[in-house]
Specification:
Oligomer: single chain
Number of helices: 1
Order of helices and strands: EEEEEEEH
Shape: globular
Structural class: alpha+beta
Number of strands: 7
Largest sheet: 3 strands, antiparallel
Length: about 120
């Protein structure tokens, strides 16, 4: 894992120590909430050394699922560029992950709107 990452405000944050139920804990002890996590790589993967659930990656750091479904894991976990298909594959993974995240947000917004309309009509 990289020794630093950018947060939403483009500030450098320390290395991720672990994931929490709603985000990540960093090596400095701070935590941040995230709606989704996207893994991107251009190096030898060390994901299995710190992502212990084993649902998305093999022991050698490759996605368990084969192309074209290798980019999506459980609970908002995404991987980009791990398929070994170069920049084209990484770009394809990124587009699929972004579309999936957008679709999930649209579903949540539609559900919230329906709930609000139901509450108004029951009054």
């Amino acid at each position: 894992m990289a020794s630093a990452s950018l947060n939403d405000d483009n500030n450098i944050v320390p290395e991720v120590e672990s994931f929490t139920s709603n985000g990540a804990r960093f090596v400095d002890g701070n935590e941040m909430a995230f709606d989704a996590v996207i893994f991107a790589t251009g190096y030898k993967s060390n994901v299995p050394s710190w992502l212990k659930d084993g649902a998305l990656f093999t022991e050698d750091g490759k996605p368990k699922a084969q192309h074209p479904s290798n980019w999506r894991g459980p609970n908002g976990l995404y991987s980009v560029g791990f398929s070994g298909r170069g920049l084209l594959g990484a770009g394809e993974d990124a587009l699929r992950a972004a579309a999936d995240i957008a679709g999930r947000w649209q579903e949540l917004a539609a559900a919230a709107t329906s709930d609000a309309e139901a509450k108004i009509s029951s009054v």
